[in-house]
What does this fold into?
Amino acid sequence: MTTNAQTAEQPIAIRVSGLLKSFGSHEVLKGVSLCAREGDVVAIIGGSGSGKSTMLRCVNFLETPSGGDIEIGGEKVEMHADGSPSNRRQIERLRQSLGMVFQNFNLWTHKTVLENLIEVPVHVLKCPKDEAIDRARKLLKRVGLAEKEGAYPAFMSGGQQQRAAIARALCMNPKAMLFDEPTSALDPELVGEVLQVIKGLADEGRTMILVTHEMKFAREVASHVIYLHNGVIEEEGPPEALFGAPKSERLKQFLKTVG
Amino acid sequence: MMMSIGAVAAASTLDLLAYSPPGWGATLLKGLLNSIVIALGAYGLGLLIGIGGAFGKLYGGPVLKDLLAVYTTIVRAVPELVLILILFYAFTGVLNEALLAWGFDRVQISPIVTGIAVLGIVQGAYQTEVLRGGILAVPSGQIEAARAMGMSRGLLARRITLPLMASNALPGMANLWLNATKDTALLAVIGFSELTQATKQAASTTKAFFTFFAAAMVLYLCISLLSTFLIGRIEKWARRGQRDMRG
Ligand SMILES: Nc1ncnc2c1ncn2[C@@H]1O[C@H](COP(=O)(O)OP(=O)(O)OP(=O)(O)O)[C@@H](O)[C@H]1O
Ligand SMILES: [Mg+2]
It folds into this structure.
């Protein structure tokens, strides 16, 4: 698998090989692979139902794979023969190194923004509370929400909630970030503020896997793009190649329909 | 003439309700206290059963799920009065049979403990269902977010699911608390001296039925009003962070 030149010697952050996933008899992923080295931004694009979310969610085992291998930070995830993870403690530990951002933000509604941010650092990572609060405040400032630390999520705009959710993921100091269509649930005028935050993360060299429908954005930030169709990787490569000179008919068609 | 009869009646009513004999005030208040202790105990026991039962029904193995289904179905199908009689005789009977079989002496179980156990088992079945509904109404995304960040199951249940479920389950749980306070009256059938039994005793001895049952009604009403007030406070706290969508 190809990665861009600057990061070719970097250690591998996430490697997925031959991933299979079925829901009942419905085969959703038919052997997909992906490799993200540290600093890579891998974008996954594709039509609705092509398996993008499923692939991303298998990386941190929110979905249980039906087969294949997954390696996080050089550590192979222990699986049974059927692909299900065999060591829950390992899964929990590995998840702590992956910051996931969801389409619907999923902030905890009974906690203020600050409480959302320090929840996992304090209760899972056992970080001292004042240290966690310091860190959370810095991150909130960074995503432009310094004034909102005492607010409850229900009283914030979608864009603010998503920026808070990104800060919450960053608060764990993750080795990589996973984004599942982070702007799809947002009103158009709020998309920009969230993309700007994600762009900032890409620029500082964060490893990310990003499922997105924002083609312009994928082209701008990604170091590697994967086009998924019906559970197979139809085409992949650097963004200039994929968007500039698509080879497969399907991808050409797809790019035409999404504009 | 009319005035003086009224005055006599009022005076004797007060005499009847006076705290110390020959007034029956102390008996009524002791009954009230017993009722409250039993309601609190039964509700607490029901809460333990209910939390375990709700998580068991949702996340337990097939055997546990079946057992819980049998428990909640039976308890909710049978009239509480019948259940109380069955459980009372089963509870004391089976326990003593077991003790005798193991070579111990019979024990006299305190009526308070029996009352709490019996009503607690009834409460547990209803609370299991209310809490299960509360858990099901927790947005799955918020649980997923916690899982994605590496929270263990126990921590997730305690820090995320339970508090989110609490606000969903609160109206139903408040109802069950009021039921618990009123169900204590059913214990009168097994001769336990809670408020209703104490009232009956006072009324039949003095033949002042209206006076004593009116007094009992006022006491039950006081429990209910106080409960409603406290529940309102709790509900406000549990709903922190939620927007009032009714406008
Ligand atoms: N929990 C599930 N149970 C059954 N089928 C599922 C489940 N999750 C996803 N699927 C199916 O798997 C396929 C891929 O779904 P997935 O969510 O990965 O698509 P996607 O590429 O992310 O689509 P979108 O762009 O609409 O988000 C779909 O056909 C979907 O119906
Ligand atoms: Mg999706």
